[in-house]
Amino acid sequence: MAEPLLIERAGPVLRLRMNRPRLHNAFDPALIAALTAALAAAGGDPAVRVVVLEGEGASFSAGADLNWMRGMAAAGEAENREDALALARLMRTLDELPCPTLARVHGPAFGGGVGLVACCDIAIGTPQARFGLTESRLGLLPAVISPYVVAAIGPRQARRWFATGETFDAHVAKRIGLLHQLVPAEELDQAVRHQVDLLLRAGPHAASTAKALVRSACQPASAEQQDQANAALIAALRVSAEGQEGLSAFLEKREPAWVGGQD
To answer: Residues with Cβ < 8 Å from 133, sequence gap 6 or more?
Structure first.
């Protein structure tokens, strides 16, 4: 039996490829566990600076595996709760991963697949990608992934797509904020490489702290506490070794030390 997840490491770049192409990379417990473990390991490895998430075959991810859903439909509420918590841990781990993450969306993404795209910091897709939060057609809702999808597309859009279960194309996904960039299929790898290169040119600590800064800005305890926390953060960054090197390199018109030796 093939591994549900393929892991490739090239220097500071980690590529995670969902590997259930015959089932359109649909989730089952094995894939959820493998993804969660790989992401947790990446989060604990400071040498990993970028994670690229992608799918093998024609699809990015079709969401829940039908056989898995059939089994959970026959299970009790407590078992379903534990099952849903496993998916919630995957999404939380991806969303809060310290290093930047990039979704390479070459084909359809539905349900939990949309959740993965929403959890990534950068999402690039092709016209062949299609999307759907189709749970309402089954009398369900995308509850576990909802915090991340709402954060990506906003409450107004989420109300529509959650309620109708309507599918939408990549152009709509870009317009509503689920995708950052839409490129022809033959340019997808080039676009991904470009974003990876940009991320590797950023200070490692600055890049890893960026999403925590955005999170705190979106959920401030108070305006005063936010100002204090942001002032403390930039002060610490300015006097850190990385900040000093970045400023010195800029003033001296040279590349900072972290840009070299990426391979």
So the answer is: 110, 111, 114, 142, 149, 161, 162, 165
